[in-house]
Amino acid sequence: MHSSHIPKKQILSSKPTSLNNNMLLGAAFAGLTLSSASAATVYTESTDLSNGAAPTDLTSTFGNFLSDSAVIGTLSSPGDFSDYFTVQMTPNASAFIPYEFSDDGSGGTISVNITLSGSSGAFLGGSVNGSFTSGSSDSGTLNFTVPSDGIVRFNVNHESQSPLINYTVGTVPEPGTAVLGLAGLAAIALRRRREQA
Ligand SMILES: [Ca+2]
Prior knowledge:
It contains two helices and ten strands; from the N terminus they run H-E-E-E-E-E-E-E-E-E-E-H. It is α+β, with helices and mostly antiparallel strands. The chain has a domain at about 40-170: Jelly Rolls, CATH 2.60.120. The strands form two sheets. Strands 1-3-10-5-8 form a five-stranded mixed beta sheet, with no helix packed on it. A five-stranded mixed beta sheet has the order 2-4-9-6-7, with no helix packed on it. The two termini are about 25 Å apart. Calcium ion binds near residues 49 and 51.
């Protein structure tokens, strides 16, 4: 009876293979580290965002909302016509923030708007009035100049009869394709080495 079940071939090749595998794993982890360092923040509404005069303060949720960040929420009619929140951005920056609206497809014409203001309540340019046919969606970009204190208030308002509106404000990051590519290549190389071993 053999004392070990490890095939002789694997014992002979274990040292160089594990060295190479460690290098490849290192490359993969470097990719993961890079990915998390540049990761964006996506805030998904779980507790209803403010309906009233005092906006929900999300300024500490995002380091800088301009850096690949997003708020995803819902409005419903009746019951939750508004979501008001504030975020922090680079002071005085020219902001280009994408938005998207969709609904639950229950019919009719859907109206929803976003009004932007500063912490003092002063209106900022770039607000939008969205209108689209139920079952489709509406998207665009909010263009405005960030106030000198960096605080921007979003007022998202339901203006129609459809029960449910989904909205996204900001950039929901795609998977980091370049970084995933590096990790993926390392994983493929690892698998090939294992198949050859
Ligand atoms: Ca709300």
